[in-house]
Each structure stands twice: as structure tokens, then as C-alpha cells.
Amino acid sequence: MGEAYFGYNIFLSVILFALGVLGVLWQRNALSVFMSVELMLNAANLALITFAQQFGDAAGGGLVLLIITVAAAEAGVGLAIFIRLYRQRATIELDKATELQG
Amino acid sequence: MLDILYFTLSTLAVLSACYVALSNNTVYCALSLVVTMLCLAGIYLVIQAPFVALIQVLVYAGAIMVLFLYVIMLLNPRQTEPVVASVIVRRFWARLLFLLLFFLISAWLWLIYSPAKTQTQWESVPVKTIATRLLTDFLLPFELTSVLLLVAIVGAVLIARRN
To answer: Cα B112 from chain centroid?
Structure first.
């Protein structure tokens, strides 16, 4: 059951990943950019689970668990950095943080 | 029945992902990201991966998004800056890159896709099997992840605290 969805799932994963890339470049707010990165991680998870189901490998669930844990760690550190950024310049607009000529 | 559920969920996921990518309001952005994640959890249920669906709801839609919303409420970011020329140029390239990425990957997948090669029966993997794989073949990545979590906790507290 479910095997008919292989192509649709991969297609959905591609759409979500491309939308994540679009969001990273589109948004000016650091928090929104970060959420688009989470969107890309979700798309990668979907592709991984789909391939794991297709090839009948139990490792997919474990790998997705690890990816989600790493995403949680990344979210914690990233949000701490944004809090620090907000304290120093009272804004989290990415175009305002240009000391490194970015 | 399952088909209708699947296509409703995937359409909803794509629409809310569009909103995440293009919305101006950070709170709405976060809420529609929650919708995307819940839709993906539903899709995991449809493709017979209930463990991943559970983790997705608990950790992603539960813990990570609560953290996001908490920081949004704490910082209360407002979009007051006007859209300057450099942003318009960047958004033009963003659209181009989106279309390029989408069509290139889709075309590539279309070329290499052959459904007959690996068609297996999709079935639910028991949690015990996943746990066994995780604690035997993937023991080192598993332990490294726990160390990473510890480092991230200490680092986040250290970065965000007031001196």
C-alpha cells in the first residue's frame, strides 16, 4: 500500500525544496529565512523516507530521526544568534547586518 | 479514499509552503509552516511510515515551532523597511533560480525514473527494527547527535544570555 505515490512524493519534495530556496532569497527577515531553511530540511526528509520505503530499508526512519534532532539543535543555536543580533541593533533585517560586507 | 486524502494533504502542503516563502508577516509564516509540517506528517501516515509521522508532529510541529513562535513573540519583528532596489533585483534572481531548480530537477528525475526497477511493497516498519538499526549500524552518528545536542544547548544559552 502506498507504492503508487513514489513519483508524486519525489515531485512534492522537489517543489518544497525549490520553495525553500525561493524563500531564503525572497525574505528579508532573519526568522522567515530560517523557516524557509526548515522547509528545505522537511523536503529532504520526505525524499529520504520515500526512498527508504521504496527500497524497503529500515534505516530511513533512523536517519530521519537524526536529521530532525540536528534540525532542532540548529534551530536552538540560530534563534539564540538572532536574539543576540536583535539586542545589538534592535532589528533582525538581514540587509542591515553588513559588517562582514555580505 | 486514500488518494483523495493524499492529494488534499500535498496540495495544502505546497500552498502553505508558498505562504512560508513569500509572506511578509513572520507570525503567519510560522503558522503556515506548522500547517506544512502537519500535512507532511499526514503524508508519512499515508505512505506507511507512522513512526516518522509521530516524530514529525512531536519534535517539528511541537518543539521546534514552539521555539520559533516564542522567539517571534519575544522579538516582535515588524516589516517597516521599504523595499529597496537591491531587494527587487534579488527577488528577480530568486524567481529565476526557483524556476530553474524546479524544472531542472524535475526533468532530471523524469529522465532517470523507471518505476519497474525497484517496485517493492510499501509497508510499515516496526519501531523495534528502526531502533535496532539505530543502535547497531548507526551507533556512532547516534552518539554524535547526542553530543551535538549538548553542545547546542550550552552554546545557545551562552550566546543568548545577557552579559
So the answer is: 25
Over residues B23-43, the pLDDT tens digits come to: 988 999 999 999 999 999 999
pTM: 0.90
Residues of chain B with Cβ-Cβ distance to A15 below 8 Å are 14, 17, 102
CA distances from B12 to A96, B79, B94 (A): 34, 26, 23
CB proximity under 8 Å: A 65-84 to B = 65-66, 68-77, 79-84
Q: Which of A21, A27, A18, A37 is nearest to A77 (CA)?
A: A37
Domain B2-78+90-125 of CATH type 1.20.120.1200: yes
Task: Please say whether the beta carbons of B155 and A77 come within 8 A.
Answer: yes
Angle at A22 between CA A20 and CA A24, to 5 degrees: 70
Question: ipTM score here?
Answer: 0.90
